[in-house]
Amino acid sequence: MKDIHNAQQSYKKLKYSYNPHLTSNLSKADGGKITEGWILSETNWNEQDLIDFVKTTSYLPSKLIDGKKLKKNVEEIYFLTLDFDKGDPSMEKYIESSSTSKFSWFLHTTVNHQKSVTDEGVNLEPRDKFRVIIPLSRPVSLDELSKIKEVFVERFPLIDKTCFDGNRYFKMNSDALTHLRNFDDDEGNPIFLNPDDEQLKTKKKKPGRPKKEDIYFSLNDEVVLEDGISRAKIIDVKNGTKIFCPYCDRATRTHPDVSNAILNINNAGQYTIHCFSEPGWYYQNPEEIDPSKSKLFWNESVGGPSMIDYVSYNGDGPLYIFKNNGDFENYCVQKNIDPNIRSYLPRREIIFNPGLSGGLNDKYYNLFEESEYMIKNYTTLPPLALNQVVSELEKRCKVIYEIMINIFGEKEYLERFLNWIAFILQARVKSYTAWLITSNVQGIGKDLLFIRILMPLFGEKQSQLMNGSRIAKNFNKIDMNCFLRGYNEVFSAGNAKENLHRKESLKDLITAPYQSIEIKGVDTFQTSNFMNFILFSNSEHAIFLDDEDRRFNVIRNDGAIKVSDLSIYRGLKYLETDIANELREFADIVFTLEYDRELANHPIETEAKNRLKALSKDEYEEFAERLKAKDASYFLLDEIFPITEPEKNMGLKTDIAAMIEDKIDLHGVIPARYMSKICKYHFQYHNYKSTLKRLKLKGVEETTQKFDGISMKVYESK
């Protein structure tokens, strides 16, 4: 009996949605951001109209509620769009194997067809990339589509699974190569794929022998090698060796004497056999994987799988954390990994500790990596006394010396800085002091100091120079493996609140043993804090500094000149090379220096630091400190709430002045109803609202307290 076709098939139409804002010049990523304005349309099911369709229209196979490209808005789906971009099957192979299908389909190549691409830094050979449009005889829901997906994924393991999302759009290709497979009924109408066909229903697994894709092999299993005669255990076969597939029938093959499979080791450290005769992958028993060969591990810090040796083009750190299980499974498909490996990955806590060996070991995964200068053995070199370090630097590294002395000005300050660097690099620890380097001239060499001189010693991956606006922000992956952090321009002009916030955050980071890492989609977790800080600014008042500060070394050389005016400057094109030529000698000095631990962890007193302290202290801070100290006499309450002269001479006070004085002396608070009058007296040239804002920055805040059982709003310095 003939199928009863719906109206769509009867009129030989293909329904789809398009967006007029998606043009050929728009990148795929930018197109993906367009979520609204999708319009339902249709085209004729004939070769020319289909060719014009895929060359001029970016499409998706569904009807969308309100035209919004969201999965929850997918109302019904009209066709499948199989997306092949892994080279298996090839376009020729697909056309050949599907030429006898009992339904119609249309194939077209994508914009990246047979183009070289880069995947995680590896250049991949050009390969076939194409899509196959398979119209359905009736619209289906997302639930029905998910069941159809299982059948096609089983048939094509390397298919891009996102092509079944229902709300994914497919970019037009003006240069598309196409192929139409029309399968018609007796009346000449094209037959579309019937979603109710028995072949599209997933079959339950029967007990007994598993399917081929469920077969696991052991490293002690033997395989036949490429010569067709020799046999060897899999554990003794080299990665990438051609073999005969042990799972397909050699007698039924067209070329039974030619090896038809390859043995590889995937990124999980798991051996795989890829059979070309019956396209599929076979995996080593996941319980037998070698953790030392695995680029994957179960990250106990975040509660999910992670990948090591990941290079991010965004510079956000070396550790790749999968967003969710779907992200991990997609990675497994791309890299030919058995997703069941997840349960057998080595479980490790993630740490960053320069004092321990780096990489994956039996207890943890250490993000720390030794730089080439850390690896060198310096024990054969004579030790260098601290009081000789500056003269040795001047003698052995003339370029580096002149840049550094231009920044620090005094040999005493440069000696202390070199001691600080040597302590951190030799002891592999964090210092409890930081350096703040200010200048009134730009271009004196601060960036050269950090990027060209220090970063190679500390390691390029674990030292970063950032803008000061990043201070006091949430910490993410890039902060997990930081050994040396530089902040450029730590001063935020005209923003006292931000500057105070930055100072408090820096104070905590300089001394805190741990830092909280926040990564999108992952619960916040703590890791050890080994950050050491160098701060740069062109402002003399770069941060607020407390009188009793014990964290900051502050340097300002008012005689500093531009690097281009130094005697060592031979031109910009030579400068970096000249520095690089001295780095090994500079490293020898740093790693043989007999450092003083105490000096490295106590700041040096400088004129620049004293000036900064004076600039940091203001009338608002004084007000807050006196309130916190319960010093009522400072507030001159008799002047603000006066009495008659005779009463004053008798030592009397007004009831208001006496009451406020008691509240300050006993509790360190000012009643809120009198705060306005007190502030107007002490800060005559500022309005009350701005005064309260400034006092709040110093810790003076409104609160409620009880006195004799009565609640009262008061201001307190916290």
Description:
The chain has 22 helices and 33 strands. It starts with 6 loop residues before the first helix and ends with a strand. By secondary structure, it is an alpha+beta fold. It is extended, with a radius of gyration of 36 Å. The longest helix has 21 residues, at 572-592. It has five domains: 7-200, no CATH class; 212-288, no CATH class; 295-368, no CATH class; 386-613, P-loop containing nucleotide triphosphate hydrolases (Rossmann fold, 3-Layer(aba) Sandwich); 618-717, no CATH class.
What are the salient characteristics of this protein?
disordered N terminus, 6-stranded mixed beta sheet, 7-stranded mixed beta sheet, 718 residues, 5 domains, alpha+beta, extended, 22 helices
Strand order of the largest sheet: 11-17-16-15-14-12-13
Let me know the CATH homologous superfamily of the largest domain. Answer: P-loop containing nucleotide triphosphate hydrolases
- C-alpha end-to-end distance: 86 Å
The portion of residues assigned to helices is 25-40%
**Tally of helical segments:** 22
CATH fold group of the largest domain: Rossmann fold
Give a quick account of the main beta sheet: strands, pairing sense, barrel closure: 7 strands, mixed
